[in-house]
């Protein structure tokens, strides 16, 4: 759906669409409470590119690569990503889902992304999480 079409929807319609997309993209890996928390925190007047991760290293690396971007922890306890003495990215993420919103101005438009880490133990058999 194009941004103009999305913005022409009512707030209630945008929220319903966002909720459906979160559920679909996460393949049921987010709980209803987690989806509600995301919907409660994020504004529905913009579209987000939703990126799902099941590996903490990959999640942490992607977040760290977003230099110059605004980042906000949306879901989960304090996420800590840092580099150790060898320069390797190390992260400490609890066994719950974590979501970080990232806003970055690229060219003349703002990109909005939602990075979501779903713990591998929540994966169903048919999903490839590991």
Strand arrangement, largest sheet?
A: 1-6-5-2
Mean pLDDT: 79
- What is the helix tally? 4
Written as H for each helix and E for each strand, in order along the chain, the element string is HHHEHEEEEE
How many strands, what sense, and barrel or not for the largest sheet? 4 strands, mixed
Bulk shape: globular
Secondary-structure class: alpha+beta
> What is the helix content?
25-40%
Q: Compute the number of strand runs.
A: 6
Overall radius of gyration: 15 Å
Q: How much β-strand is present in the residues?
A: 25-35%
Query: What is the CA-CA span between the terminal residues?
Result: 31 Å
Give the low-pLDDT segments: none
Summarize the structure.
The protein has helices at residues 3-8, 11-25, 32-41, 56-65; strands spanning 49-53, 70-75, 80-83, 89-92, 98-106, 109-117. By secondary structure, it is an alpha+beta fold.
